[in-house]
């Protein structure tokens, strides 16, 4: 288990889990959002994004934090394990709201050097809200991930499906 991608719906706690997993295994933690988002919430071209992702994945060991479906051919080419944080809708919604409120309150920069910060208006009163995204995509993302588990194209990958924080903590304990 050298190359691991942690996936899950928005609000599932991928980054928090990845930080713990990276510390447990002493592997670098690669955050896809950090690779994707530029200053002032600028989106890179796919060529730029894919190139930066390929470069980040050149390491021997890594914990990759994130989804971005269009990157599956790149990130899963050499991945050993995909860990799916498959938490309930209400759990992920609660976590998304809690995270958005915290980030809007503290005004913390999300990815160093980008200046990107969340605001209450953007987090709670916008169609671009991560909360709205969680509400509208949770079901379809879950169906997509379920299809990955049985897709012969991904038979080289070991999938680990964690359905609760308790499962996630037990998984981490078993590794240490």
UniProtKB/TrEMBL annotation:
InterPro entries referenced in this protein's UniProt entry, alphabetically: Cytidylate_Kinase-2, P-loop_NTPase
Q: Where is the signal peptide?
A: none
Source species, domain of life: Bacteria
Its recorded name reads Adenylate kinase
**Which organism was this protein described from?**
Bacteriovorax antarcticus
